[in-house]
Write a structure and sequence with these properties.
The protein is α+β, with helices and mostly antiparallel strands. It is 21% helix and 17% strand.
Length: 112
């Protein structure tokens, strides 16, 4: 019997689409705090963010979520996605900017 297919170990995910309640608030975080470039915006409906000129790494949309509330802890939905920074120093800067923006972080040891 043939083994089931497994994705190669070097595989990475190129982009993620996120349902958000407010495009401006989401842009303030991904653009303002983390420094992603805004590639395109479709009014209050969608925005596309990039790093390094890629067509988009992060797509934000309100198509089914505008002015929505966060999902309850026991509901399905995205739990985690990773932004891979080129160096630990770059990651540390991003974590600091997120903290300074008031983003509550979980599972991250914070050094003073």
């Amino acid at each position: 019997m043939e083994s089931p297919y497994q994705v190669p170990s070097g595989t990475s995910i190129g982009h993620v689409h996120l349902k958000v309640a407010d495009i401006d608030r989401a842009l303030a975080f991904y653009k303002g705090a983390l420094g992603f470039d805004q590639v395109m915006r479709l009014g209050h409906h969608a925005a596309f963010m990039s790093a390094g000129g890629y067509h988009h790494h992060i797509a934000l949309n309100t198509w089914h979520s505008r002015n929505g509330s966060p999902a309850a802890p026991n509901h399905t939905g995205l739990y985690h996605f990773a932004i891979r920074y080129p160096t630990r120093r770059d990651l540390a800067k991003a974590v600091r900017r997120a903290i300074d923006a008031g983003v509550p972080l979980q599972g991250v040891p914070i050094m003073a």
